[in-house]
């Protein structure tokens, strides 16, 4: 019954987020009408432009390891608050994120139950929505001339310049 409720709330939350264009348009993971192709076309366009302008394009790719497990679990709640989403939806999501425990079994012996301190629950119908809410602001930290694309937990940073030393100076001089 809880999974069904999570699906219903997740559908409403996802629709609200998309309808109000809350997420960064450069975040393409886990969103309707946004996919890997969008990221690749965007990158290909910048590569093509750099080639035409005889520039060097440098990319750095990051995969955020254990992204769901290491996400601060209260960050989606902060986002809901920032976006003025409260009431019963906020309280339900707070309960989904707060009441998490785990046990381990080693050689057939089950440990005592322990509370999870971090992470977004995997396997929940709300997991991906909560994660992209949490990671959304990472793109706001990228400054020109660096560009960024985000697909779920994969971040691509890139920039183009006429000469490598211009690129190095432009990147390293940023605060």
From TrEMBL:
> Highest taxon of the source?
Eukaryota
Domain (Reverse transcriptase): residue spans on this chain: 1-175
- InterPro entries, from UniProt? RT_dom
Species assigned in the record: Photinus pyralis (Common eastern firefly)
* Protein name as annotated: Reverse transcriptase domain-containing protein
What is any Pfam family matched here? RVT_1
């Amino acid at each position: 019954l809880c999974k069904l409720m999570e699906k219903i709330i997740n559908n409403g939350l996802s629709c609200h987020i998309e309808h109000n264009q809350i997420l960064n348009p450069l975040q393409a993971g886990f969103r309707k009408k946004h996919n890997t192709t969008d990221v690749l076309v965007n990158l290909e366009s910048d590569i093509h432009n750099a080639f035409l302008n005889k520039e060097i394009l440098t990319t750095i790719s990051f995969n955020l390891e254990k992204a769901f497990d290491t996400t601060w679990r209260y960050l989606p709640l902060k986002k809901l608050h920032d976006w003025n989403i409260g009431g019963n939806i906020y309280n339900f999501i707070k309960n989904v994120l707060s009441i998490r425990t785990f046990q381990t079994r080693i050689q057939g012996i089950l440990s005592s139950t322990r509370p999870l301190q971090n992470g977004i629950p995997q396997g929940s119908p709300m997991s991906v929505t909560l994660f992209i809410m949490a990671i959304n602001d990472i793109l706001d930290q990228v400054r020109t001339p660096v560009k960024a694309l985000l697909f779920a937990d994969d971040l691509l940073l890139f920039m183009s310049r006429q000469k490598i030393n211009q690129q190095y100076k432009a990147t390293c001089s940023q605060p």
